[in-house]
């Protein structure tokens, strides 16, 4: 488990900026701000709004001074005037103004520290017949917020910004949400620049930007002008607030929608002489479809609309023979939208079939698909708290936006949310658009407070100077085990005492130190073996091969070596490296169709040591039958005994004392563990008093206490060891275990900061017709180099980077490579069969009298804990503790025989023909596991502390959390190159919950956590469930939705270079050689073809150890 697995990975909803990274000296003022303590000047804001609406005023509809609409089109003279005015006003407030190459304006008010600003943004452009509130209000409210801060001499910890986005409306240049779209990389810059004026095609957006002086020099990219968060005030443009009587809409996201082009073809006929029963009336057929689509959409609480309808021949006395119309279908849920569209299409086909006897036919084409956009939970919570503080808990209502907004773009790359206020009669895009001054003031107050509340969190959690820390979940030090969906109100009371972070309080450490291996490209030119990837398995391979002084080994690693970094070494700081680009690749999935369109973060180690430097130190092995299944797939030498033997070879266990064994069930079987391997493992010395009652509750429910879960029979509950060095209380990982002790070997060289771009092959194939690798191309600092491989190339980039490198080298599926612009060399199922574990968290309040990681929020406790850790000795206390309480359970523990049979039946009914023979075989092996009472399908992890997803912890309250984890996923995903550019991340489609059985199993496991906590003696020390909300999450459907919304990867992806026979879709054979090559092997988690019920770190080390063993064996045979 990577530390990110302690964060509910709802990337599209929740992110924290740099949690734990620089939260050292938080001023008291930063802790004091409460919503409503500053009041905006409503009269000033409205006066400014109406004065600026003189630029572009049009379409008078009444006698009042403000009863005109607007026609201020993007980049026209009125827009230019408004922009110049805004620039000057921002400078008057002391803001710096930056304009990018799309004309987006960033007006930044300084904070005490440099970093990414929390922004309030919207747009100044309008429709040709628009009103004076759409967009304009959002900008003026943001400006008023800055003015109010200046009035009260507010000094924020980090910058606050106002943003004016270009061409949101798309009225003059016909594409909406363009400026923010380019900024978030959704819209190509050249495409945006080349958009033509709808009335004069000689004018482009670029030419008009230049004409008015707003073609900025700053690159239009969230990387060049990053934001920590983005909030937008907007009129609702609909009737919901007015109908419900609520003052504020707390916007949850944007609806998913699909567009369809539909052609109905019949036969023209005379309206007077053709009876109804002989007509082929395309118009009647189309009308029935439109009416039925409306009925179905309404039934499912969606929307279906026809915006374009054309018919021919278009004569008053002729029944149309051809009707073309569009259908726009919308729903807040991507998954439910797909089901809704399927139902509408089926109904349309049925209607057409009824008409077919008369000669009507139907053509149905999907033209656009936009998944639901879910705003970020921490931002939503900031809005909610601002509403409640100012106007009471009844003033707001959760709402989805039916229209597109700039925030829909920003939410893709930074935490974002919106505030809606009433628009009278739901009118918008109309001169009569109106929101009362009182409603405008309400919205502006909430906007400012939400931004300041979020900024307060940012002040608490530290520097926002890095891309990933505003875009992805942050994790914190011990005691602040939080999730990416954590709310703004949470961190002000959750964040641990700064005392805990004192070891980080130095410029050298905060500069992310590293030790140069001393190897430069000039020293890295030719080796017997070239290993690509200095991660968990790669360094094991390199170290073992270089034990033979007669061979040379070179390792290419994109990350750096950081041997003295507390963020890696200290257990208390686990979680500060994932999604931090100094340590991590910061990958994320494509929007997941069956998980409400969410993008999941996929941290992978970009540091010497790979993900073993980022993970949560868990050291386990699964059920032996699962490893035997790997062998059954045609992989001789890859069954339980092989994995266990090589895993033992990699590690050394410090035996737990008898006191630990008796008091905390930290028992072990000596024969199961290694005694002289480089990776140091041990049992935690500290345990919360609440863990033993959890174990006893599981025992009461029929689970057995497993003496040693690494012995091949892991079903039951047990205490797990971790990769913690007992001598000094620091992480043991592949860089410290395999590289550091061997760094002085003359035949082992590791070059860091080097990105491999492709494997090079000799011009001629060998006698067997195989490609022969001659070396690897890589880059350092933008310059390209080549290293020769005399014997072999070993690819150890991990489940993401290994298939990526193979595809960049021309090895993969033809359609994938063609789409990426790569010439194919070998046809293989690279990047297929991806499987991953998932988890979902529930959190419970503890009765008084227990010590958990929550205590680390208290200064005195944290200080004493750090002193104990620093003092050394055998027991370094809570700071050196790790998660240790695990239970692995078969499905029969919480599902009935009928429920299991139904799952089996549903999986068997799926059309698996799209997958390879090998994938189909793995699914059958998994189905067989359903009947094996010793094979766990679910893991439960006991976490001694607060670990919630939505709510905030109560001050002084102790918690425990239970993570329910899916271990045998039926869903299969893909990882493929997006282009031929090695620097461009591959596309990751985990395809989570594409097989509904996965959702059914996991959501029922989440619900089963209530059963565990309702069982004594755990029941006797538990107050209540806090998260998910016990009042809102009760039914099976509730738990399914909760699971889709908050589930995270457990960071155990496998399978993308599956080890199976080639005819089964395998990429490597049982000797790990890539099919079609003579001397390229893959050695990492990507070769594991079917998942196991275990954290996979020890299995990956075993792969590395066995790979080196086989390479040396094969080398001897060759001689």
From TrEMBL:
Entry GO MF terms: flavin adenine dinucleotide binding; hydrolase activity, acting on carbon-nitrogen (but not peptide) bonds, in linear amidines; oxidoreductase activity, acting on CH-OH group of donors
Xref: Pfam families: GMC_oxred_C, GMC_oxred_N, M20_dimer, Peptidase_M20
InterPro entries according to UniProt: Amidase_Cbmase, Bact_exopeptidase_dim_dom, FAD/NAD-bd_sf, GMC_OxRdtase, GMC_OxRdtase_N, GMC_OxRtase_C, Peptidase_M20, Peptidase_M20_dimer
Top-level taxon: Eukaryota
Cofactors named for this entry: FAD
Keyword set, alphabetical order: FAD, Flavoprotein, Hydrolase, Oxidoreductase
Domain Glucose-methanol-choline oxidoreductase N-terminal: 605-628, 798-812
Similarity section: Belongs to the peptidase M20A family. Belongs to the GMC oxidoreductase family.
Protein name per its UniProtKB record: Glucose-methanol-choline oxidoreductase N-terminal domain-containing protein
Lineage: Eukaryota, Fungi, Dikarya, Basidiomycota, Ustilaginomycotina
């Amino acid at each position: 488990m990577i530390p990110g697995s302690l964060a509910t990975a709802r990337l599209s909803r929740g992110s924290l900026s740099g949690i734990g990274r620089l939260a050292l000296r938080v001023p008291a003022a930063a802790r004091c701000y409460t919503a409503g303590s500053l009041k905006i000047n409503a009269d000033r804001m409205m006066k400014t709004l109406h004065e600026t609406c003189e630029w572009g005023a049009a379409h008078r509809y009444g006698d009042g001074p403000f009863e005109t609409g607007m026609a201020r089109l993007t980049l026209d003279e009125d827009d230019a005037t408004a922009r110049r005015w805004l620039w000057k006003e921002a400078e008057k407030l002391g803001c710096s103004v930056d304009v990018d190459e799309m004309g987006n304006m960033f007006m930044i008010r300084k904070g005490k520290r440099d970093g990414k600003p929390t922004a309030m943004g919207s747009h100044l452009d309008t429709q040709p017949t628009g009103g004076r509130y759409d967009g304009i209000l959002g900008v003026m409210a943001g400006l008023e917020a800055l003015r109010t801060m200046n009035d009260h001499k507010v000094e924020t910890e980090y910058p606050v910004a106002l943003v004016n986005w270009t061409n949101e409306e798309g009225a003059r240049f016909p594409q909406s949400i363009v400026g923010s779209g380019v900024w978030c990389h959704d819209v190509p810059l050249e495409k945006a620049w080349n958009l033509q004026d709808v009335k004069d095609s000689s004018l482009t957006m670029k030419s008009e930007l230049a004409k008015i002086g707003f073609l900025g020099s700053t690159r239009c990219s969230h990387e060049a002008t990053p934001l920590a968060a983005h909030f937008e005030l907007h009129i609702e443009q609909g009737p919901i607030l007015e109908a419900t009587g609520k003052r504020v809409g707390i916007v949850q996201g944007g609806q998913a929608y699909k567009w369809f082009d539909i052609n109905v073809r019949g036969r023209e006929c005379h309206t007077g002489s053709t009876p109804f029963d002989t007509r082929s009336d395309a118009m009647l057929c189309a009308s029935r479809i439109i009416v039925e689509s409306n009925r179905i959409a309404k039934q499912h609480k969606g929307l279906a609309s026809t915006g374009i309808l054309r018919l021919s021949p278009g004569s008053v006395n002729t029944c149309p023979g051809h009707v073309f119309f569009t259908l726009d279908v919308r729903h807040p849920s991507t998954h439910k939208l797909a089901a809704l569209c399927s139902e509408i299409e089926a109904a349309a086909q049925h209607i057409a079939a009824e008409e077919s006897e008369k000669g009507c036919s139907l053509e149905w084409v999907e033209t656009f698909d936009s998944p639901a956009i879910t705003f970020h939970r921490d931002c939503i919570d900031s809005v909610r708290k601002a509403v409640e503080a100012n106007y009471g808990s009844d003033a707001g209502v959760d709402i989805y936006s039916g229209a597109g907004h700039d925030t829909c773009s920003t939410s893709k790359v930074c935490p974002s949310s919106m505030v809606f206020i009433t628009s009278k009669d739901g009118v918008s895009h109309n001169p009569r658009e109106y929101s009362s001054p009182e409603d405008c003031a309400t919205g502006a107050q909430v906007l400012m407070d939400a931004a300041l509340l979020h900024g307060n969190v940012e002040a608490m959690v530290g520097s926002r100077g890095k891309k990933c820390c505003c875009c992805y979940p942050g994790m914190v030090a011990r005691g602040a085990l939080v999730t990416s969906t954590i709310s703004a109100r949470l961190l002000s009371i959750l964040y641990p005492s700064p005392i805990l972070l004192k070891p980080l309080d130095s410029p050298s450490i905060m500069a992310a130190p590293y030790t140069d291996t001393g190897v430069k490209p000039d020293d890295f030119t030719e080796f017997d073996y070239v290993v690509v990837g200095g991660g968990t398995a790669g360094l094991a391979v390199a170290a073992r091969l270089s034990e033979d002084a007669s061979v040379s080994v070179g390792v290419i690693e994109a990350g750096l070596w950081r041997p003295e970094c507390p963020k890696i070494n200290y257990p208390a700081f686990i979680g500060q490296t994932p999604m931090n680009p100094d340590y991590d690749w910061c990958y994320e999935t494509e929007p997941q169709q069956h998980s409400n369109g969410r993008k999941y973060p996929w941290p992978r180690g970009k540091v010497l040591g790979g993900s073993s430097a980022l993970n949560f130190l868990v050291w386990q092995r699964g059920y032996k039958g699962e490893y035997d299944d790997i062998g059954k797939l045609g992989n001789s030498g890859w069954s339980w005994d092989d994995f266990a033997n090589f895993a033992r070879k990699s590690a050394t266990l410090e035996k737990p004392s008898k006191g630990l064994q008796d008091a905390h069930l930290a028992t072990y079987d000596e024969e199961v563990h290694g005694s002289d391997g480089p990776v140091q493992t041990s049992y935690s010395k500290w345990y919360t008093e609440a863990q033993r009652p959890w174990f006893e509750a599981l025992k009461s429910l029929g689970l057995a206490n497993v003496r040693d879960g690494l012995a091949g029979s892991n079903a039951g509950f047990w205490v797990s060891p971790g990769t913690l060095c007992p001598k000094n209380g620091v992480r043991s990982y592949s860089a410290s275990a395999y590289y550091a002790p061997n760094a002085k070997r003359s035949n082992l060289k590791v070059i860091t900061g080097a990105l491999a771009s492709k494997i090079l092959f000799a011009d001629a194939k060998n006698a067997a017709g195989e490609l022969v690798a001659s070396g690897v191309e890589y880059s350092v600092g933008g310059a390209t180099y080549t290293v020769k491989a005399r014997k072999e190339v070993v690819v150890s980039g991990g489940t993401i980077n290994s298939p990526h490198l193979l595809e960049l080298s021309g090895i993969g599926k033809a359609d994938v490579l063609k789409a990426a612009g790569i010439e194919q060399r070998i046809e293989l199922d690279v990047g297929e069969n991806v499987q991953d574990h998932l988890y979902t968290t529930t959190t419970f309040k503890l009765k008084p009298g227990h010590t958990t990681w929550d205590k680390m929020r208290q200064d005195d406790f944290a200080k004493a804990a750090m002193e104990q850790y620093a003092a050394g000795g055998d027991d370094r206390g809570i700071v050196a503790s790790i998660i240790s309480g695990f239970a692995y359970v078969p499905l029969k523990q919480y599902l009935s025989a009928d429920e299991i049979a139904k799952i089996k039946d549903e999986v068997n009914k799926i059309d698996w023909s799209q997958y390879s023979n090998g994938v189909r075989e793995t699914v059958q092996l998994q189905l067989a596991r359903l009947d094996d009472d010793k094979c766990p399908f679910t893991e439960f992890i006991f976490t001694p502390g607060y670990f919630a997803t939505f709510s905030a912890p109560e001050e002084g309250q102790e918690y425990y959390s239970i993570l329910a984890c899916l271990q045998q996923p039926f869903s299969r995903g893909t990882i493929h190159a997006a282009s031929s550019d090695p620097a461009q991340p591959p596309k990751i489609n985990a395809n989570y919950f594409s097989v509904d059985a996965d959702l059914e199993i996991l959501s029922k496991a989440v619900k089963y956590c209530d059963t565990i906590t309702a069982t004594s003696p755990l029941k006797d020390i538990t107050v209540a469930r806090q998260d998910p909300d016990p009042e809102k999450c009760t039914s099976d459907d509730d738990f399914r939705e909760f699971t889709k919304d908050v589930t995270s990867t457990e960071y155990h992806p496998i399978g993308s270079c599956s080890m199976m026979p080639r005819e089964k879709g395998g990429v490597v054979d049982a000797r790990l050689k890539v099919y079609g090559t003579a001397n390229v092997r893959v050695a990492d988690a990507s070769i594991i073809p079917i998942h196991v019920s275990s954290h996979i770190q020890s299995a990956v080390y075993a792969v590395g150890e066995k790979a080196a063993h086989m390479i040396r064996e094969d080398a001897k045979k060759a001689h």
